[in-house]
Recover the amino acids of this structure.
């Protein structure tokens, strides 16, 4: 399997600009062969403005950007793309638009099968089995919570440790993921803290970035991984 | 319309026990005529344990608790209830179970039409138009985000003001509600901070509790309301 994915916890780190913290990862990931990147702006309301932001940033890295929302046939745009970049924002809105535009299956096919497509996703939930572990507000109702399914686990982006000084009584992130694992047959959840990303190449997965990640497995204790860790075990269906 | 609802932001306040912060509101709300309360524990996984917690607390206030999950016929249990108490937890799990058990319509009918049922809801999202503005993780997929519809607006419970010292880049609560209002024809959202609750009696709504609430209206600036404020305007369909 030739898939190449870069699953990023967040597009912007505190105190820096859009994609600044992962720009060297982007250049390294897309490399010199890619000239044009297909951008998916569905996660934000103002698609034109979002495309301009992405286009300006990618230009500084040497890539041209075409936005899928301007394509006459979105499925054909995916079919012909050299590389794809799915922008973050609201996961429910993004997934609903991917279904509305009928591109879920085509993205999966392009990444996992023929003529592999490098996919860069600061919207990592849509790349996983399902969006069940997003932090976003369910502002629209997608036809399913099943996502593109490029990897056989789930991700919790912007993962946050419990704040011992908090007086707020909303559930902690860990409690929410534990509630998810109370449901039967639920897969692993990788808690990606801000600044962290997962590079997937074929059947190899590597944790990149500057922060540790926490892996939650149903019925087991959670485990911390340092940047640089090999997380290929996540890619076997049996976990 | 004879509806009587107490919509509560949260079941537990920091430093106090389950329902302690609103126990006098509960006693005042159910009064002396109610003897037995029908408890809905669907929002948590361990329904027996949750029922015991609720039963122990309600006993100290002088009420017996029957849990809907032990009823042979949940719809009949709603039909015959004197009063209902829907516990908080995960809103997606709660709403899915309400649909699975076919009680959404019967609760609406009992609260809004015949032989009015007093409903106490520390799970306020299910009482509103939809669960689109819950903070919970979407751990299960309900057949719809449409909720019981006892009031014609939405609620964001555990409402949090932006933290100026935060370095976390997840969207603030205000940004999330703004994203909801980017969608067409979306209703008002009442941000209920922890410690706050809304009493609805017929066509009158009053903010109770110890904290202010923030009202978000599509296309307008948000407005703060003090405890004691009359919010009956929220109950007119035209907002
Ligand atoms: Ca997001
Ligand atoms: Ca909750």
């Amino acid at each position: 399997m030739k898939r190449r994915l870069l699953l990023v916890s967040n597009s912007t780190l505190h105190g820096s600009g859009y994609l600044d913290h992962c720009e060297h990862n982007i250049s390294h990931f897309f490399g010199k062969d890619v000239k044009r990147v297909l951008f998916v702006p569905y996660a934000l309301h103002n698609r034109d403005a979002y495309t301009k932001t992405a286009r300006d940033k990618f230009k500084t890295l040497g890539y041209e950007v075409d936005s899928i929302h301007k394509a006459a046939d979105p499925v054909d745009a995916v079919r012909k793309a050299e590389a794809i970049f799915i922008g973050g924002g609201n996961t429910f809105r993004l997934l609903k638009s991917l279904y509305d535009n009928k591109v879920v299956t085509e993205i999966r096919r392009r990444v996992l099968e023929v003529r592999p497509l490098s996919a860069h996703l600061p919207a990592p939930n849509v790349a996983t089995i399902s969006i069940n572990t997003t932090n976003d507000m369910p502002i629209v109702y997608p036809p399913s919570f099943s996502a593109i399914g490029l990897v056989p686990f789930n991700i919790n982006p912007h993962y946050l440790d419990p704040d011992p000084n908090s007086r707020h009584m909303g559930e902690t992130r860990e409690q929410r993921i534990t509630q998810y694992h109370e449901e039967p047959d639920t897969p692993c959840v990788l808690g990606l803290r801000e600044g962290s990303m997962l590079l997937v190449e074929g059947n190899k997965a590597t944790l990149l970035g500057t922060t540790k990640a926490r892996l939650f497995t149903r019925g087991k204790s959670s485990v911390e991984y340092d940047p640089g860790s090999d997380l290929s075990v996540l890619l076997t269906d049996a976990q």
